[in-house]
Automatic annotation (TrEMBL):
Domain of life of the native organism: Bacteria
Transcription regulator TrmB C-terminal domain residues: 112-205
Native species: Paenibacillus polymyxa (Bacillus polymyxa)
InterPro entries the record matches: TrmB-like, Tscrpt_reg_TrmB_C, Tscrpt_reg_TrmB_N, WH-like_DNA-bd_sf
Domain Transcription regulator TrmB N-terminal: 11-77
Full protein name: TrmB family transcriptional regulator
Any Pfam family: TrmB
Length: 286
């Protein structure tokens, strides 16, 4: 046998306080009643009953007569539910309008948003990938790429171009993958694994992904950042294409994996680099 629902709990779910729920049920069982009778039959303290009843009258849950001794009757249940539905719909409409205003601010192309922590960065990148309409450019380490496989494959199946610059061997047959040289050395140099995403040349996420809760990234639609960050990925692709065609000649001039160029233009104070320059012997050939 199905258990009988607890009417007081149901009313509390409809935003009644405990005292209000008891008073309303009492009036459903027998009305009209004076405030004193409602208190007596419901168990609501006499010191509280008129405050409770007044609030319910103002809210429209019950009605009161204009007599020397006011009498109270409940709003019929079907009218109460209809009233609650109308109010809830009004609240949802106002909430939607307000939240959409915040969303517009959130997606303002002038803003740059900081993202902290591995999971938050993963979620933001997945949302960016799912929202792609034309093209995804991604620079990523093989250790992190599997997390995004499903989302990337899904948009690729929808006809969206997916191009990946991979640090390490990556077998994503649904994407165009360029393997970047020296992934292990670069990881050692910068102390972590970065990730760079460009969606439709209008949205980018860039940051360090390998530091757990200390991972940090930035997300923006600001064209002053989207353009150069997207171009960084594209220029890496240029270099990969050129190396595929002319590796022997270029390495004869600039060393294995172009290491002389890398050391010459290392990041760091005064261009001297944050790390000890690599040597040809230290490079793992690919």
């Amino acid at each position: 046998m199905k258990p009988k629902p607890n009417i007081l709990e149901i009313l509390r779910d409809l935003n009644f306080s405990e005292y209000e729920a008891k008073a309303y049920v009492t009036l459903l069982e027998s009305s009209p009643l004076s405030g004193y009778a409602v208190s007596l039959n419901s168990g609501v303290p006499r010191s509280k009953i008129y405050e409770v009843l007044s609030g319910m009258v103002n809210r429209g849950d019950i009605m009161v007569s204009q007599e020397n001794t006011p009498l109270y009757v409940p709003l019929p249940p079907h009218e109460l539910i209809a009233q609650r539905k109308r109010k809830a719909e009004q609240i949802f409409n106002v909430a939607q309008e307000s939240l959409e205003q915040y969303t517009a601010s959130f997606q303002n192309r002038e803003n740059i948003w900081n993202i902290s922590g591995y999971e938050a960065i993963i979620n933001r990148i997945n949302e960016g990938v799912k929202g792609a309409k034309h093209r995804i450019l991604l620079e990523i380490w093989k250790e992190d790429a599997e997390v995004f496989r499903d989302a990337l494959e899904q948009v690729a199946q929808q006809g969206i171009e997916v191009i990946i610059v991979a640090y390490g061997e990556l077998n994503f047959d649904f994407a165009t993958v360029y393997r970047h040289d020296m992934s292990e050395e670069i990881t050692s140099e910068i102390g972590g694994r970065w990730i760079v995403l460009s969606v439709d040349d209008r949205e980018v996420v860039a940051g360090i992904l390998s530091l757990g809760d200390d991972s940090r990234a930035a997300w923006t639609l600001h064209p002053g950042l989207v353009m150069p960050i997207t171009e960084v990925i594209i220029h890496d692709i240029y270099i990969m294409e050129i190396l595929y065609e002319f590796r022997e000649q270029l390495e004869a001039k600039f060393g294995p994996n172009l290491i002389h160029l890398r050391n010459k233009f290392a990041m760091g104070p005064n261009g001297k680099g944050y790390y000890v320059p690599l040597t040809e012997k230290s490079i793992k050939r690919v």
